[in-house]
Each structure stands twice: as structure tokens, then as C-alpha cells.
Amino acid sequence: MSGLTAEIVAKYNYWLYVILMMVGLYAMIGKRNLVKKLLGMNIFQTAIILFYVSMGVKRDAGIPIVNKYEVLKNGIDAATVVNPLPHVLMLTAIVVSVSVTGVALAVMLRIYREYGTLEEDEILEKIGK
Amino acid sequence: MSTPTNLHLYILAAPLVTAFVLNLLGRISRAWVMPLTLGPLAFSTIGSIMLLGQVLSEGGFSYTVGNWKPPFGIELLVDPLSALMLVLISGVALTATVSALPWVEREHPGSEHLFFTLYLILIAGLMGLVLTADAFNLYVLLEITSITSYGLIAMGKGRAPLASFNYIIMGSIGACFYLLGVGYLYILTGSLNMADIAAIVKTLPQSAALATAFAFAMVGLWVKMALFPLHGWLPNAYSLAPTGAGLLFAPLMTKVTIYLMIRVILNLFTPEYVFFSHPLVQSGVVWAAAIGIVCASSLALAQRDLRRMLTYILIAEVGYMVGGFWLANAQGMTGAILHIFNDAVMTLCLFLAAAAIASRTGSLSFENLRGLYKTMPVTMAAFTLGAFSIIGVPPTCGFFSKWYLLQGAVQAEQWGFLAALLFSSLVNAIMLFRIFELAYFSDDHGDHHAGDHSHHAPAVQEAPLPMLAPLVLTAAALLVIGLGTGPLVQVIRQVLPQFF
């Protein structure tokens, strides 16, 4: 048991992302309200962003802003700065996630104008009529 | 390796840049819409044919955007397969657009420029997907194509926004899974460049992390390509989308995603790892594809609307290509890649025919198809040709790729997949002959016996020329590609790894 606890504590960032991701996935698939589905999608995407951000972190490393001339002259120990690449990737992923959310909200607006509700059951009922 | 030129960038940039120009100028006058959509697509088509000629004679090349050297910068790969895909995308898009223009004018009067802005960005995104050799860049382009298609589908009438919303949810899950796969790969290799990753993956020991990365990336792409049973979003989204958008989605979206799966297997994870380190997974995927083909074909049989039926045939065809590629032998892989091209052209033919029919009858439910051979002979002749190709009747191109797939199945001793292919051909034949019968024979028998003077053939009422011309051209292309299978296969063989 202590082995498992140690495992979870050592890799808590990955466990957190898995839990968040499952919360999001459940909301996307299990919930019947379209807004909740969209929120689930946002949680899902945020979980992945956290996963990426946490993988760049190193123990006792600083922010990757360094003096260019000093680095060109003396070089740099990679262990002293966190890996900025995953963080930069996530800027793009955030842009993508914002755009998808925007499109989804606009689509939802059209659905609401058409059916007057955002509950999936009620919409399907109105379609069935 | 030939010297890189910038041609492929111009091919990609033409629709992307004009999309924004069109958005601005289209507000001033609608007269800009037609030249600004057909112009860049015609440019891209000619450019990609030239690029293909160059690649075939001098070999492919890799291109570093902004001169940032790989593996740090984003690399574009122009090899015979991606050049062929560029020709396919631009050619199909150009043909579909000719027919889409009058449809958009009819269905979205006043917002044609908005429709075609999204439409052109979508095409640019597809071209980018085909060219990119960077795993993360692939995700971004995948989302560009998806977001534009969400918007286009939501422009449809009635239930279309709801279908679009479901597609948004499913599409996001797919893209996020792919992104997760890339994340695990990045942890393992520290790189995002496909060639670089592939070189590192070869040296890695078998690990759960690598398998996880691969599983996430594959499932993500399978959701995006609507492989059965992950297909739930596709029938509604594609059949409720505006007709003009459906003409572009149906032939290209699933096919480009299958191309991505092939790229991810060949150039990212390497076929040695994918096919030969887990033989059980390999044959499992082929079985899943076989079951998918059978189920999707059966579902298609239950549809009472032509366009909906075609969307289920589309899902069955996805199973052909995924299963065929996972057969992991030269015949099956050649068949799968060949089928990408053939299926794109024959789906385009059938959807163009459906659009042409709908322009006269209004609806595509089966009872409206009666007597069409008399009123729309040219349209129905082209439809028949497309249907023969789907069934796999020689000398249409559908026969040749199916032949390769069958040979591959026999060689790999995958009898389930073989049976599924034959079953699906049979079901396709039943479905499409039912439509032939409706359109040919069921011509108001009652009037016939009453001795009505309207017994004489009703006036021919063909679809307008902008819808008819691309249809006839595509139907002719089915035969041309069928007869040109030999050279096409030779090009495809160049891409497959040596040991196949």
C-alpha cells in the first residue's frame, strides 16, 4: 500500500491530470445539458494543458530567461532552467481551445434560437414532434 | 532529393490568403465570390500537378519553413505521396466548388462570402495536413480543418446546428487524444519532428509509455475519420450540412485523416513497431475494421434517403482503408492508399449526382427518385458509373483498389476481412440496384395502363450546367483513374518501406 502511495505522491501531477480529464470526459458524454458538455470539454482540454506544462518542469530549475551573451560565451547547464517548449506549445493549444469554445457557443446560440432550450432531451423531443 | 522550391507553399497559400481577401471584397460585391474561389483553387490544381511532375522526375524534398533547421523548426515534407494528395485535394476541391457555388447562392443568399471564407480555409488546412512533417503542427492543422467544418455544418438548416455541436464534442475528444499521444511521445523522445522521432523510436525499448502514446494518437485519428464504432457524429453532420459543404467534406475529410494515419504509422512510429511488435493488435484492428464494414453496410441498407445512405457507405469505406492498411503487407497497403484516391473520386461523383438530383426534386428520399432515368438521363448515367465503382465493377477505379485489398487479405490470411469486403460489395450492389430500379422502372405504372397521353416520356429536365459539368467530368475521371491504375500503383510503391 505504501508503494502505491509513494507512486501517487511522486507523480501527483499526472494523477491530477488523469482525474481532471476523466471529470471532463464524463461531463462531455454523461451530461444532457449542452452547456455542461461544453464545460466538460474545457475541463478536458485544461487537463491536457496541465499535463504538458507539468512535463517541462525540473526540480530546482529557474525560468528560462537567460543572458544571451553569457550563454553564448559560457554555455548553459540545461538542468538549471525548465523546458519552455511544452509551455509554448500550450499557448497554441489554448488558442485552439478558445476558438473551439467560441464556435461551440455560437452554434449553441443557433440551437437555442431554433428550439428555445439547451437540454438535449427537450431538443430531441421537439425534433421528434 | 531534388532542390526545394517554394511551389508547395504557393499552392497552400493561394486558398488561405484569398479566403481573407474574399471575406473583405465579398462584403462590397457578391460578384467577387466566384473568381476568388475558383481562381486560387485552379491555381493550386495547376501548381500541384506541376509539383507532382517535379517530384516524380527529380524526387521529393523536405522544406524548412523560415529556414529553421529540423528538428527545431517546422519541416514540410514533399514526397510522391504528399504531392499526389495535393493534386487530389486541389482537384476534388475545384470540381466540387463549381457545383457548390450555385448551391450556396441558393441556400445562403447574402452570406456566400462568409461560407467560402470558411471553405477556403478548410481546403488550405487539408493541404497543410498533407504536407506537414511535424507532429504538433499536425494537431494544429487538424483543428483548423475541424473548426472550419464545424462552422460550415452549423450553417445548414434545421437540426444541423445540433449535429455540428455533437461533432464539436467528438472532434475535440479526437484531437485531444492525438495531442495526448504527442505529449507522451515528447516525454519519450524530446522531439516533435516526425523524422527525428521515428529515428529515436527505433532505439527505444518496448515500453508501456510508447504503447500509450501510439494508442492515444491512433484512437484520436480514428474518431476524426469516423471508423466504426466511433462514427456516431458523421451521418448527421454530413447529411445535414449545407449541400455545398457536403460536397467538399464527403470526398476529402475522412480520406485526408486516413492519409494522416498512414503518415503516423510510416513516418512517426515506424511500421516495424506498429505492425510487428504487437501482432495481436495488428490483427485485432483488421478484425475491428471488418466488423465496422459489415455494421456500416448493414446500417446503410436501412436508410431511406439517398444522402444518408451515402454517408453510411462512406463509413464502410473508412473500414476498407484502415483494415487494408493494417493488413501490413504490400498488397493491402497499396490497396488502401490507392483506395484513398479512388474513394475520394467516387464519393465526389455520387455526392455531385445526389446534389444534381436534389436540385430538381428538392428531396433525396427514395420515393422522389422515381423515373429519374427519363427526366435526368445524364445525371443518372454518371450516378450509375459512380455506383458501379463503389460496388467494384471493372473497369471503374473502385474495382482495382478492391482487388488489391482482397489480394492483401488473402496473403495475410485475414478471412474475416475478406468476407467483410465481399459482404459489403454485395450489400452495395443490392442498395444501389434498388435505386436503379426505382429510378428506371417505377415510372407510374398506373398512368401507363390508363392510356394517358402523358405516357410519352416526360420532358428531360437536367440539372443546371454548373452542377452537371463537374459531375460528368468526375464520372469520366473514374474510368481514367481505373485505366491508369498501373502508373498510380508504381508511385504508391515508392512510398512504402523497402521491406514490404
Q: What is the count of DSSP helices of chain A, taking H or I runs of 4+ residues? A: 6
Report the uncertain regions of chain B.
Answer: 445-455
Task: Report the strand count of chain A.
Answer: 0
> Which band does the percent of strand residues of chain A land in?
under 5%
Please write the CATH class name of chain A: Mainly Alpha
Shape of chain A: elongated
Distance between the termini of chain A: 56 Å
The shape of chain B is globular
Summarize the largest interface: chains and residue counts.
A-B, 29 and 27 residues
Q: Please describe the biggest sheet of chain B, giving its number of strands, its sense, and whether it closes into a barrel.
A: 2 strands, antiparallel
Task: Please tell me the CATH architecture of chain A by its name.
Answer: Orthogonal Bundle
| Tally of individual helices of chain B | 21
Task: Write a concise synopsis of the structure shown.
Chain A has 129 residues and is mostly helical. In chain A, 75% of the residues lie in helices and 0% in strands. Chain A has a single domain, classed as Helix Hairpins.
